[in-house]
Amino acid sequence: MRVISSSELRSNMKKYLDLARKEDIIIQRGRNETFTLRQTEYLEPDEDLARAISFKEFKDGALDHIRQLINTHNK
């Protein structure tokens, strides 16, 4: 396990991502925050991801719904 600062991580990202394959890297950010960098197994996309929509699709759908509510209320 290594402890590094967040600025050290920014400066040497590749180095620490490579090291995280073998050991945990603890990132100290300020005095009160710590994070752990470690390699994890690849997660296969699942049904939830397949059903996901983009932010634009969400926004357009929400605007359409709001317009319908306004039109219904104004009748």
**For this structure, what is the CATH class of one domain?**
Alpha Beta
**Spatial strand arrangement across the major sheet:** 1-2-3
Structural class: alpha+beta
User: Uncertain spans, ≥5 residues at pLDDT below 50?
Assistant: none
Termini Cα gap: 66 Å
Count of individual beta strands: 3
The description of the largest β-sheet is:
3 strands, mixed
Shape: elongated
Main traits of this protein?
single chain, alpha+beta, three-stranded mixed beta sheet, 4 helices, 3 strands, elongated
Task: Give your account of this protein's structure.
- A hairpin with a 3-residue loop joins strand 2 and strand 3.
- The termini are far apart.
- The chain has a domain of 36 residues: YefM-like fold, CATH 3.40.1620.
- The mean pLDDT is 92.
- The protein is of the alpha+beta class and 75 residues long.
Question: What is this structure's SSE topology?
Answer:
Elements: E1 2-5, H1 6-11, H2 13-19, E2 25-29, E3 33-37, H3 47-51, H4 55-74
Parallel strand pairs: 1-2
Antiparallel strand pairs: 2-3
